Amino acid sequence: MEVDYTKLRRLRQERALSIRELSEKAGVSTETIYSLEHGRREWAWPRTVRRLAQALEVEPKELMKGE
Description:
Largest sheet: none
Structural class: mainly alpha
Number of helices: 4
Shape: globular
Distance between the termini: 12 Å
C-alpha cells in the first residue's frame, strides 16, 4: 500500500507523538516509520498501515496517497 509521507508525519505531529512513541503504540519499528515519513520508502504492508492508522486514531485510507 502506498503511504503519503506528509500525511503520516502531519498526523503524528498533531498528536504530539515522537517516532519512538508511535512505534511503541503501533507495534511498528522506528526504522519503518522513519523511512515512510522521510520518503525513503513509499509503501507498507496493509497490516502496518492498519496498525499506524489505529495508533493515530484515523482510518487507514487517511494515510494513503491520493486520499
